[in-house]
User: Fold these one by one.
Assistant:
Number 1:
Amino acid sequence: MPPKNVKPASPAVQAQGFRRGELPRLDLLHSFEAAARTLSFTRAAAELFLTQSAVSRQIQQIEADLGAALFERRHRALALTDAGKLMQRVVSDCLERLRDAATSVRATTPARQVAITTTPGFASLWLIPRLARFTASHPGVDVRISATLERLDLERSGIDVSVRLSLTSHGVGSTLFEETVLPVCAPQLLKNRALPLKKPPDLAGHTLLATDMPQGQPLTIDWEPWFKVMGLPEVRMKNTLRFSQYSDVVAAAVAGQGVAIGRLPLLAELLRDGRLVAPFSGVASRMGYFVNMSPRAAGNPDAQDFVRWLMAEAESAKAREPATHP
């Protein structure tokens, strides 16, 4: 039996009719539930990111479909009719059941994810600027990056791929690229005639930008391959700015704060666009970046795609790498 005291819809509303067994659209039910709960088309509209008039039209449509008025339009107020109260109970319960079911289904659907660990410098200077190209070609894949100097246990940490800097003679895994090092600075430092940078000993008049090293290691340890090829003893520079992360060293160099040892190809883009310049030639550092996949990646085709993408990006970057001499 129909609920008692249900106010019928207007003749115009009834004329539109409602076929037996046909359900109102889900978006209309969402709007009705919000309006019935708040007793305000305006508040319901704000909650649903709709206009007040759009919610009003949707309520009129659902009333037309049902052939019954669901609200009493009072002066600056709404009240539910008996039919509206019945619909509110049922619609609220059904929507809640749908939400619970959707949550349960999502929880049983394995997420597509690739987890990577690498150094903070590689992540910020090389990987992240390119990452949009991978995500664009792999919609629905979540990429998780653990940027740390700590060498994580891949299996225990739930990591698929690692990219690590190692001596080329001791590297394990696939070689992504070998590293070249050279002094870099902002263009304005080369224009300072009072402090020239025309020959390597001129570095002594400039500020060293360096990453903090483990106890006992000199701040210029990254410079040693370059010093050796140039036939220089360690150059003691005028003063030093230390940073905990290599990306901060690079930012200070771009800002004109001093001279840093640049790592190619990490800084290739900065040299190519002129934010950094290299006053002297580069040399091989005997270091390289190596890619490894954990056993779990064998069952993750997205992780395998990520490694193939990494290798392709490295090849493409190598072809565009700037010359390592002034």
Number 2:
Amino acid sequence: MKLLLIGINIRHIACSACRAGHEVHVVDGYCDLDLESCALDMTLLSRDGLDGSNRAEELISEHIERVGPQAVVLGPGLEEARVKGVPVLNNPAEKAARISDKLWQARWLERNGFPFIRTVTSGEDLDFPVMIKPRRGAGGVGCRIAQSRSDLDWGEGLIAQEIVSGRAASVSVICDGKGARALATNEQLIGESWTGAKGFRYCGNITPLEPLPKSDIASMAERIVARLGLVGSNGVDFLLTEEGPVVVEVNCRFQGSLDTVECATGVNVFEAHLNSFRGLLPSRPAIQCTAGRAIIYAPRSAEIKERMLFPWTADVPRPGSIIGRDDPILSVMAKGSNRVEVISCLQDRAAMIRELTKGPAKII
């Protein structure tokens, strides 16, 4: 199938689609080195005015006219755009917009009897400290702890949540609008210092989750996405507490765990995603190995001077790219027979990349 994939960062989606045998045309905000091998052609996405839906939809229309695809896949930053004249392999824009609202999610989870985190639009009804988050957003960006009312600085689009302690996990799910099938449970890496991530920043995954919790979070995730009527690849994030799992959020889009899920299970996530639009769901796959991905963050602003394209790197920036302080440099991958082995390998590779970032003005 001739596909147009467009979004701020779609390397993982495009490479999965390429491995499934599709003709992939991409419009991406980074055009990383490893994306070249996955795409028939690659165009840099202009981010000017992307915050306005009209401009985003105009850009998508321009690229549809240029490429002439059989279908479009909208990636990060564009999942809520409305597209006309060609099939769109995403959840409907209206549904994506509604579900991306964390306040709406919390209320929906409560109404439907799922464990949720109490969420409000002010700190008045919660005991301090509280978690402050963007009402819309991903990757832990903008999350912080408010210790008291004096720490509150309410801006537009913020919510407050009670603080829940637990192990961060996710479930990758394929849904056809009625039924759902979990592909894998994953450990989430959050704010790991060895990656350079700060605060609550998402910095990777380990698949499968080890050890599995007593509660069947895979079945719970299936029930959630099926009841929401989602289609394609979706994810549910959890905190695994001493009292049981609590749902953090539902992500109605491809997840950052795609690479580790494919490596650990042997399933092509894009093909499973595509089949779901035809009403076909996969069987729950067996785990073949343990796989990990870690996102490495820059300790300082720098210019990329040389290629860092190794067999175990992904999202590799081009020489000449400027990486801002605390922004992602690239991802490192590893696989092995268990979590300890994979984490050790990821940490070694992260150390190699971070060693290359030393120096006041360059990364080599």
Number 3:
Amino acid sequence: MTKGPRPPRSKPLLRDESAALQSRQIKKRDRAQPALPFDPMPRRVEPALALLKQKPPLGDQWQWEIKWDGYRLAVHVESSGVRIITRGGYDWADQFPGIESAARALGPATMILDGEGVVLDEQGRSDFNAMQNALGAVGRRSGNLKAGNAIFMAFDLLYLDGRDLRSLEYRERRHLLEETLDDFDGAIRLSEEIDADPATLFDHACRLGLEGIVGKRRDSRYRPGKTGDWVKLKCVQSEPFLIVGYEPSTSAPGGFASLILAAYHGDELRYVGSVGTGFKERAVLDLRATMDKLPWRRKAPPVPYNGKRRAVWVQPTLIAEVEFRQWTPDNKLRHASYKGLRERQDNADVFRL
């Protein structure tokens, strides 16, 4: 038996076969809105870090700029708002209202800016103590954890309008960063590159009281951690150490004579000496009150210690930024001076021996 023809499975395109074939009307794109992303914006980017060097590397493949002394931040400008992410992964947009407002003005583009949040002194130098007064012990005691006068010195661009730029060479990212911030006036500024011999630049930076200089390989991709793609030269050594105790003051009952410090050696803490200079009177009182409020204090030192100081030992929680000239042969700080208290959220890398 012969089967009949199978009926068509699809309907005719047009009911009226004589009518002209037409496509749907396409809506025009709203140019005020950002383009649809090609790459998803990362929620957080682990920062590239500069490796400390005693001498600048040779060759013309390096670009140089001033080293800023503040808080490392990543500014995320998103369609839903602005996030300002610290190294510890915390959103500090509320702590930096000026930077947050400037980032909103950069829209509607979406981007991630890498840079340093700083407070400048009258000479235009970054002043970590001024930043610490707003966000450290003084700010915490007053309940005012805001740095309204902080600015953001941008030195890299990691994401722009749907494109993840981390696989591009640094010279390409830098070109896009300069275009993005061209003629922009606000609390977000471009960290300028300086075309000069690095040894001469470093000498001038130290003479002007700056912290140092940073060099970046022009052909490097953006990689987290200390890979050697970025290097730094510091005029004076400055590192974060854990506070493990304090020596009570004989003249000021509410203060202290010095802080006892520790660094990591492997997974253990080692005593590296003390710091008793660089403090303002108000900072001493605030810091002593903060240490006395720690969850517990210890009778025994939290580090191997055979010194003769009359010490009060505390939980190794607070992180002090300390400036020093050199190390002694037995790994103790020499000519140490206190710079400020690092916030835990800043996730400062405690120094490792």
Number 4:
Amino acid sequence: MPTKETKALATWLKTQLGENRFENDYAVLSHYLSLQGTPSAEFYANILRKNNFDLSSLPSKNSYKKSFSHYNPKRNTSFTFIDLFAGIGGFRLAMQRNGGECVFTSEWDESAQKTYSTNYAEYPFGDITKINPTEIPDFDILTGGFPCQPFSSIGKREGFEHKTQGTLFFYIAKIIKEKRPKAFLLENVPGLVSHNEGKTLEIILDVLRKELKYDVSIKVLNSADFGVPQERKRLYFVGFRNDLGIDSFEFPKENEKKVGIGQFVETDAEGPSISEHLQKSYIFKKDDGHPEIIDKDSDFPVKTLCASYHKIQRITGTFVRGGKTGLRLLTEQECKAIMGFPPDFVIPVSRTQMYHQFGNSVAVPVVQKISEQIVNALGGDE
């Protein structure tokens, strides 16, 4: 069920579905409402009809979006995609900007669901491990930043169901096997390259290339090379279905000049401040160059924003000169700039959850550039 904090959208959906509904009923209805007039809408309409739901009682797509969507980029759609491990919708922003239409979203974290639904007027379906691929409408491109978990040792080659069982990648593979999308874009930490002496990556590529029959390219990209004021390296997988004949893919070229954080630092922002006691006893206890301190004159990208930023870690943290105590944490708007989110993106959760969500997100401009290359490569197939 939606969290207690969720307001207008949840209240309205409850009036339509009643109180005694499961989480996925809200997902089905909100996806249908957002997709009215598209082939994917009929997929969800059939589910609602089976539950004896009167579709004629619902508002139009435009009316629904106007009432409940805070951030809905307008763009003529040329392809469909699904958003797995969606978080707060970084992949979605990037794909929509390149003409994509999201037809399915999955995210298990309730706080992230709240931010996602507030901005897109769609409740994500929950735990991917409980979703049958047949319950997902057809789509062109699969996207997702999947968590890296331990894989079984290579051992006997008995197929991905043996090698990846118990990992979240297993469920991505199941969906790809069932739905056969034209392409996929996956993201992970660069440490995956060396994880388990490279065996984990070997298994993933073996499954994608040999068993699922996709031409796959991988590359570690730094967000700072794509106009994002943050040093953030991530490993990206791009795959095309073999029968499309796209056996080579060029990742986007890096910018020559990096963008500094200074232009995004807010002037006269008072908080959240770091206490003088904490500064003396911990932050500046050593003269070792840590932590990173920024201000309006800082002409360099900041360190990687971590999901645990709120814990004020002196080695990995970046803090701002200013505020009531002379040193403060990043503001919401500064976090948006660091991750490439637009200023009008709504964050309806606590400050701690805000840091956690941005720290777990993708850098939007990087994914936007990669997805643009994917769309161009698909070209006449769209």
